[in-house]
Amino acid sequence: MALFKLLVNGRSYQADVDPDTPLLWVLRDHFGLVGTKYGCGIAQCGACSVHLNGEATRSCVLPVSVVGKSKVTTIEGLSSDGTHPVQLAWDKIDVPQCGYCQAGQIMTAAALLKRNPKPTEAEIDETMTGNLCRCGTYHRIREAVKVAADHSVSGSSKTPKTK
Ligand code: FES
Predict the structure, then answer these.
(1) Smallest Cα–Cα separation from 104: which of 83, 73, 79?
(2) pLDDT tens-digit profile of 90-106?
(3) Which of 23, 65, 80, 150 would you label with 29, given CA atoms 20 to 30 Å apart?
(4) What is the pTM of this model?
(5) What is the number of the ligand 1 atom nearest to the C-alpha of 99?
(6) Is the CB of 98 within 6 Å of ligand 1?
(7) Which of 100, 107, 131, 138 to mutate to test the pocket of ligand 1 (most atoms within 8 A of CB)?
(8) Burial letters for 108-142: b for 16+ Cβ neighbours within 10 Å, e otherwise?
């Protein structure tokens, strides 16, 4: 066991855990941030996606010991009030079905739009293809990313707030 201090959603947290513990379980079991989901445990489905310094990252295979001073953002920290452009678009298009995969979908989409504010449909598909949805909401996900991109470009490209 070792003590790890992490910066998550703009707040400092610490956990006394085995260095190999995946970030996902530290977030969920030690910090109470349960919006990030366990899907496959082998980085193949994307349900556990969080941001590490703004990049979408699979937290189920990332040992807490390698996080260091990186800024971690979870779905809870994407915005303080659910008004990140991607969250608004998801609501407008009514994307989720069962909802299990959606935090990961939203975090991947938000990271895409941060690095590429106006992606083509092919670029959206290329990025989002790594996030699986057992309910098959892929068409709505694609539409929502387009809506979010339009929203961002039309003047609300504010950076996501963190708690
Ligand atoms: Fe059910 Fe994606 S909405 S798995």
Answers:
(1) 73
(2) 999 999 999 999 999 99
(3) 80
(4) 0.92
(5) 3
(6) yes
(7) 100
(8) bbbbbbbeeeebeeeebeebbeebbbeeebbebbb
